Amino acid sequence: MSAADEKERAGRIRRALLKWWDEGRRDLPWRRTQEPYAIWLAEVMLQQTRIETVIPYYERFLKRFATVESLAEAKTDEVLKLWEGLGYYTRARNLHKAARMVVHQYGGCFPNTAEELGKLPGVGRYTAGAVASIAFHEPAPVVDGNVIRVLCRLFCIREEPTKTAVRNKLWQLARMLVSTKRPGDFNQSMMELGATVCKVVQPNCGDCPLKRFCLARKNGLETVLPQMPKAPKLPEYEIAAGLVFRNGRILITKRKPEGLLGGLWEFPGGKREKGETLVQTAAREIREETGIEVSVGSLLVSVRHAYSHFKIVLHAFLCEYRGGRPMAIECDAVKWVWPKQLKQYAFPAANQKIIEKLISGGNKTAR
User: Fold this and answer.
1) Any alpha helices (H) in 155-252, and if so which ranges?
2) Which of 142, 198, 128 has the alpha carbon at shortest distance from 174?
C-alpha cells in the first residue's frame, strides 16, 4: 500500500470511528468535564481497573478533593483511606505526590503537553497522552490494552504485542491515526471500541464501525489476535498475622511507604518460612516487626487474595500480649486502637475481610 493510500485509509478510519463515537458513546462522569484535574484523576483510577468499579470512587474522591490544591494539602493517610479497596495503591501515593508537584512547581496549573505531563509521578506515556489529548487537545497518541487489541486486529499484527519492537510499532500506528482536530474524542473512541465491541473474547464484529477496514476480520483472525503470551502460573504464599489484644485494644502496624501496599495499615505478620508452623510464623513475625512477645491462640479466619504477580493465603490468629514495648522495627508506625476504630484506617483488601470477621463474627475480645 502506497503512502497516499495509507493516508486515505487512516482518514476513513478516523471519520468512521468519530461518527460512531458521536452517535453512541457511553455517558461517564469524566466525559462531562474538560477540567484537567478531573480527567487526570479518572485516567489514573482507570489503570488496570474496571469502569464500574471506578465510578463511585471517582465521585467520592472529587467530592472530598474538588481541586488539585485540596488534594495536595491532604494527609497521605486520608488519601489512602479514600482509595481503600481500589487496589494498586502506588497509584494513590503517586497521585498525591503529583498533586503537590502541580501546586508547588506549576502554580496549580496542570502541564498542557504530554511531554510535561510525563514528568509527574505515576504519569506514563499512556496517561500523559490521554490527559493531553482530552484536556488540552494535543494530537498525542494513546496505547492501552483496549487500543492494542483494536490496532492488532485492524492492521492484522500477528506478533506478540508484549515485544518491544511490536509495541513501538503500535505507538507509531496510534500516532498516524490520531485526529489532529479531535484528538481527545478519537483516543477515547479507540478505547471505547475495545471495551464495548472489539472485546477479548467474541468480538462483536457485526456492530463494529471499522469492520470494512479490519484486516484480521478479512483474514479470519479476529478471534485469534492479538497473539498474547501464555500467562505464567502465580506463586502462592502463606502469611500468618496476629490480632494482638491488650486491655481491649488491638495492635496495628503501618507499612513502610515504599513497595507493595506502602502506607497502609495492617495486622503484624509475615510470610511463613520453611519448617515453621503458622503459629511459629505469627509469633516470630510479630516479634521481628514490633519487638513484643505474644501467645498465639486460635485461628480466627483464613483469607485468600490474589495480587497481580502472586497469591496469598492470610491466616489471622487471636493473640495475647505478653510483654515488650511495641516499636516500629520493620514497619513505619505502631498503634493500639479500639476495634471499633479500625474502619478509620486504610487497610489492604485481605485485612478488610479479617476486620469484618473480627467485628461481626461474635469475637468477645473485639467488642
Assistant:
1) 164-177, 183-196, 215-218
2) 142
Q: Are strands 249-254 and 333-337 parallel, antiparallel or unpaired?
A: antiparallel
Q: Is 315 helix (H, G, I), strand (E, B) or coil?
A: strand
Calculate the average pLDDT of the chain: 94
Radius of gyration of the chain (CA): 25
- Chain position carrying cell 497481580: 308
What is the distance between the alpha carbons of residues 296 and 268, in angstroms, rounded to a whole number?
12
**Closest to 182 in 3D by CA, of 29, 7, 19:** 19
Residue 17 has a CB neighbour count (10 Å cut-off) of 23
239-283 pLDDT, tens digit per residue, is: 999 999 999 999 999 999 887 899 999 999 999 999 999 999 999
Side-chain half-sphere of 49: how many Cα atoms within 13 Å? 21
Query: Residue 293 catalytic?
Result: no
Catalytic residue among 6, 8, 35, 43: 43
| Count of Cβ atoms closer than 10 Å to residue 35 Cβ | 16
Distance (Å, whole) CA 109 – CA 216: 43
Residue partners of 286: CB distance under 8 A and separation at least 6: 242, 244, 268, 269, 292, 294, 319
3-state SS class at 277: coil
317 vs 295: CA distance, rounded Å: 10
Instruction: Provide the whole-model pTM.
Output: 0.90
Residue with cell 489492604: 348
